[in-house]
Amino acid sequence: MSQTQPFLSLSTLFATGRAPNHPIAFDAQGELHWQQFSAQVAALCQRLNREPAKKVALCCLDSYHFAVGFFALCYSQKALILPGNYQPSALAELSSEFDLLLCDHKIAQSTSLPHLLLESESMESASYVFKPLDVENLTLTLFTSGSSGVPKAIAKTIKQLDIEIEILQRLFDAQLTNCRIESTVSHQHIYGLLFRLLWPLCAGRAFARYNLEYPEQLIAHAGEKVALISSPALLKRLGQEHQTGAFAAIFSSGGPLSFQAAHDAQQLFTQWPIEVFGSTETGGIAYRQQVCEHQPWTLFPGVEVMLNEERCLRLRSPHIDPHHWYQTADECELLGERQFILKGRTDRVIKIEEKRVSLVEVEKRLEQLTWISESAVIPMQENDRLVLVAALVLNQTGKRQIEDIGKGKFWLQLRAELRQWLEPIAIPRRYRLVEHIPLNSQGKRLNNEIEMLFQSN
């Protein structure tokens, strides 16, 4: 990019437009430019206008395809559904929420749901008069792990995203002048959607079509005009790297980054990661750079907070609802009006390598198997990594199955069944068979006794 691009809102991006040769996205084969991007959005919009479907789920592994689909759905005034899990059975379970799946080739290969294939190479260019988007009346629905074990729908307006993107631009634009965006996180969740795709588009920064997956790839793709959108899941694995590179900026979200991991990133890439604290429900709440241990979080502009009786954060935010308070399950200590220390979550939705996992859902998936009458799933630390373990009570069918095929094959079969529903990170690593789940006199689970089942070896 030869010069700084004007910042355009989601509302005005297509109505104003960019220069025809302005780069939008890139991969190893080269760049895709504004002229091609806007023409493909127009072509897809015309295809979607012929579709009777009102609610469309967008599922793409390629971030460029996702961007084409996102804006085409907005301009064709479809209700935009963003599943958080692309596994075939998970999409099938969610199918009552949408009428059509708009997806790229890899997703299309694994689904039997009604779908429209989104492949930029096969799209015909089309002309289209883009007007400003009516962002207040355009909605999208994201799905995240709920406390009931069922994916929880989070509805947002495009206006709310626009407000948050403007805040990000105001806070961090100076560090990202003429930068390209590389990422290790998916666009299917709110953090990746904003940071690796929508904000770059509004700010005129080209983004990578595909994720970086390994620490050595970060080194190879580092550059003084490259910003990295990442998460603790990958950044905490940098300690073993010896080569160095430089990024213009590093963003991390999905969970708190340890001070050691922040220090390792700074040593390797010359930048302290900018951590962003928030959730699908709340959007961004606060940010920090851990230049010292126990660095407090600073609230985003416009975000107001207070604590409830359990010392959990309540907030009011312009990118949620400026008139009502939202209660979180995040225990905090306030330091003045604009800073706080985060203590941890108090509910049963946890984060493992920055993916939200509902322990209730994992138990539900175990107990829907024909062999299991009851389960208890807990997180445990194993070799500096958080994993799930499960105590299981087998029914008679399960006991017969183990006798017939043996424990080894049984565990393989169980994991294969779970893979139909759960992402790999949510599948328990270890199991123990018990006659009953340990309970106290009030009928509450004794998690310490469950943990002891796994500490013997």
Automatic annotation (TrEMBL):
<dbReference type="InterPro" id="IPR000873">
    <property type="entry name" value="AMP-dep_synth/lig_dom"/>
</dbReference>
<feature type="domain" description="AMP-dependent synthetase/ligase">
    <location>
        <begin position="18"/>
        <end position="289"/>
    </location>
</feature>
<dbReference type="Pfam" id="PF00501">
    <property type="entry name" value="AMP-binding"/>
</dbReference>
<protein>
    <submittedName>
        <fullName>AMP-fatty acid ligase</fullName>
    </submittedName>
</protein>
<dbReference type="InterPro" id="IPR045851">
    <property type="entry name" value="AMP-bd_C_sf"/>
</dbReference>
<keyword id="KW-0436">Ligase</keyword>
<dbReference type="GO" id="GO:0016874">
    <property type="term" value="F:ligase activity"/>
</dbReference>
<dbReference type="InterPro" id="IPR042099">
    <property type="entry name" value="ANL_N_sf"/>
</dbReference>
